[in-house]
Structure formats: structure tokens, C-alpha cells
Specification:
The chain is mostly beta strands. Helix content is 0%, strand content 52%. It has no helices and 17 strands.
Length: 268
């Protein structure tokens, strides 16, 4: 069987960014952790939080939330156990609240306990949140919070299934004359996928005219959900019929492909 690696992701999330937040200088490492755990078993890991400010102590609160992707490609965060791919309730943190002096580090340990009936991939985010007391800016101001997240990705050993479906491949011409090539990819497996590949534009003799990268940002799709992707081509095409061909690698044993016909020129 062909072996593949799951592509993981990381990000920095800031609740509010204002001048007073410059008093915070803290890092979280690593930004993501991937674990492979047998059903019914546990595994330990840790995150290191560093207060890099030379003078100011900080107080940090750690907690876990679910992670989802919105249709516009942004992220949202929900209470633990909200999504079917959540591992948030499996994670036990220690410590959850602590003070961190200037130029010091704190190791936050956590344990992930996988239920005996779990299958596939599960995901969550551990947030480390710092608050600025109102007195540091203005006694009448509200407290300001900043949080940085570590993504936790759990594969249940021997149970992951990579499956995906491609639908709604189409080409539209924008008012600016761009060719928007869109498709929908459904994740019908049980683990996060990040489809990447190429889009080709060919004439009716199948002569390649252009090749465009697909999903170079590696935006993912959670199990059981779909995502619409759009790439644009700004080249000139003479009036006539053309072929758009899409070839994707989503992590499974085979590639995902599709093609469609479209007309150019008369629509511009």
C-alpha cells in the first residue's frame, strides 16, 4: 500500500491588537503537534511558553477548543466536543493557569486519551491566553486579551481512510476578464485532507496553453465536509472552445481528476 503523510497546519490568532498589547512578548512552541495513538491508549506531549519581556510578568490561562473552517477560508473556534472530529475533550492540560516571570519559560504538559471506538483523525487547538489589566492602559478601559494557539492533530493508528470527491468544476469570466476556475472537493474519508495540484488550460487539440497551481495555500477540508476552491487565470484566449483539466493529490492512494469544456472570447 502506498504510504502518505498528513499535511498539518499552524497559525497565530490574536483576539485584539492595539498599542497596549506591545507590552506582551510571549511565544508558544511548537505551533502544531501531530500524534499517532492506538485506540483506547494515551500519549503525553508538551508545549513551551516563553515570556520574552525583560521586565513584565504575565498571567496565562490555557484551554482547549474545537477548530472549524468557514466557507470564506477563515477559521472559527467552538466549545470542546462541538464537531465530530473534535479531540478537545480527550486533552488534559497541566497547568491550566500560571504566572510567568520576565525572561522565563513554562512547560505545559498534556495527555491525550483516545476512546476505544475512535477511528480516523481528530483535531483541536490549545489556546494560551494573556490578559492586560485595565490599569496598564486606562482605569476606564476594558481588559485586552491576546491568545496564541497550538494545533493538536491526532491520528488513530491503523484507522485513517483518505477519500475525496471532485464536483462542480466550472469556468466563469469576471468583469475584469479573468477566468475563474472553481470546483468543490468533498472529504468523504475520516482524516483531514489538503488537496493540492495543477489546473491546465488546453485547446481542443489538447495543446497545453497554461498551468496554474491549485490550493498553494494548502487550505484543508475536515472529514465529512466540503470546500469550494477557486483559482484565476489572467492570460488571453482567442475566441473558441477550450478544456480545463484538474489533477489533485489529496493524500490517498490515487489522484483526483476532472475536466470541463468552456468557451472564451465571446464572453469577454
Amino acid at each position: 500500500m502506498m504510504c502518505r503523510k498528513v499535511i498539518v497546519f499552524s497559525f497565530l490568532f490574536i483576539i485584539i491588537l492595539v498599542d497596549s498589547v506591545s507590552a506582551f512578548r510571549f511565544n508558544v512552541d511548537p505551533p502544531r503537534i501531530k500524534l499517532t495513538i492506538n485506540r483506547g491508549e494515551k500519549k503525553n506531549s508538551y508545549v513551551v511558553i516563553s515570556n520574552t519581556h525583560p521586565k513584565e510578568p504575565i498571567h496565562i490561562r490555557a484551554y482547549v477548543q474545537d477548530l472549524v473552517y468557514l466557507p470564506d477560508g477563515s477559521n472559527d473556534f467552538l466549545p470542546p466536543g462541538t464537531t465530530p472530529w473534535s479531540c478537545a475533550d480527550w486533552i488534559n492540560l497541566n497547568p491550566r493557569d500560571f504566572d510567568l516571570p520576565p525572561n522565563k519559560e513554562q512547560v505545559v504538559k498534556f495527555q491525550v486519551k483516545v476512546p476505544p471506538d475512535a477511528r480516523g483523525g481528530y483535531y483541536g487547538i490549545i489556546f494560551f491566553e494573556v490578559f492586560t489589566p485595565p490599569s496598564q492602559k486606562d482605569v476606564s478601559a476594558a481588559a485586552i486579551a491576546v491568545r496564541i494557539g497550538t494545533i493538536v492533530l491526532v491520528d488513530v493508528a491503523g484507522t485513517t481512510e483518505y477519500r475525496a470527491e471532485l464536483t462542480n468544476l466550472s469556468v466563469t469570466v469576471t468583469e475584469k476578464g479573468l477566468y475563474d476556475i472553481s470546483c468543490t472537493v468533498k472529504n468523504s474519508g475520516n482524516v483531514l485532507v489538503r488537496p493540492t495540484g495543477t489546473v491546465q488550460i488546453l485547446d481542443m487539440d489538447e495543446l497545453e496553453l497554461a498551468t496554474i497551481d491549485f490550493n498553494s495555500a494548502r487550505e484543508g477540508i475536515f472529514p465529512g465536509t466540503s470546500r469550494k476552491y477557486t483559482v484565476s487565470y489572467n492570460g488571453h484566449l482567442k475566441e473558441g472552445k477550450y478544456i480545463v483539466r484538474l489533477l489533485l493529490d489529496y493524500g490517498g492512494e490515487s489522484l483526483l481528476g476532472g475536466q470541463a469544456l468552456f468557451e472564451a472570447g465571446s464572453l469577454q
